[in-house]
Amino acid sequence: MELVIVSGSQRKDSQSAKVAQYLMQQMLPSHTVKHIELCQYQLPFWDGDPESKTTDGSRWPFISHQVKRADALILITPEWGGMASPLMKNFLLMCDNQDTAHKPALLVSVVSGISGAYPIAELRMNALKNNKLVATPDHLIIRNVEQVLNTEQAIDDRDKHLRERIDYCLYMLAQYSEALSVIRTNHQDKPYPKQQEYSYGM
User: Fold this and answer.
1) Nearest Cα residue to 21 out of 11, 9, 35, 40
2) Which of 36, 70, 149, 180 has a Cα-to-Cα distance from 7 of 20 to 30 A?
């Protein structure tokens, strides 16, 4: 499985990036994992014109290539004001459904307090319609993020249970990746009549 982890914090050295690094370490050696930290790239804000993705030396072609190669994605967003980050939403708007359709995505929300559910709800409700990513039923909310995933071993029961939940979610993401590969192959090799007329969700 080729996995791309996208962390959507607009701050460098963020807790979202820390979580991404932990998830990378938990993947099997047989998996190829790449981490795209969106704040490291000067991406333009998408204005609806495909040409805007590549203006002013944008690194979008590089990111798009990584997404196209991926079998699955993990989308990590901080909760800011009860919302997913602007960088994450911009990334999802820029994604071409030819690169993302029918690929599983594990949604991860990162929050310094005890909330964190709102970004997951937002992404499930309206962020996946046109790019046709398939959010897995399980998601992760990393609450009190400064206090967890900081050491090689869990420091308390909450940290331990979170790590166990992460392992399960990553295992299931790999299962969905394998299962949905059949759909992607059929979508390409045995297209539904007038398939392109239904390239966007209702």
Assistant:
1) 35
2) 180
pLDDT of residue 77: 98
Closest to 103 measured CA to CA, from 173, 37, 33, 7: 173
Alpha-carbon span 60 to 70, nearest angstrom: 15
Q: Coil, helix or strand for 34?
A: strand
| Domains defined for the chain, CATH in brackets | 2-190 (3.40.50.360)
pLDDT of residue 55: 85
Residue 72: strand pairing partners: 3
- What is the full DSSP assignment across 69-90? H-SEEEEEEE-BTTB--HHHHH
- Please, what are the averages of pLDDT over each run of 10 residues along the chain (202 residues)? 97 96 94 96 88 87 96 97 96 94 98 97 95 97 98 96 98 97 93 88 86
- d(CA 12, CA 123) in angstroms, rounded, equals 23
What is the per-residue pLDDT for 41? 92
Residue 185 CA: distances (Å) to CA of 67, 74, 83: 17, 21, 34
102 dihedral zone (left: phi>0; alpha: psi -120 to 50; beta): left
Its pTM stands at 0.96
Contact between residue 160 and residue 79 where contact means Cβ atoms under 8 Å apart: no
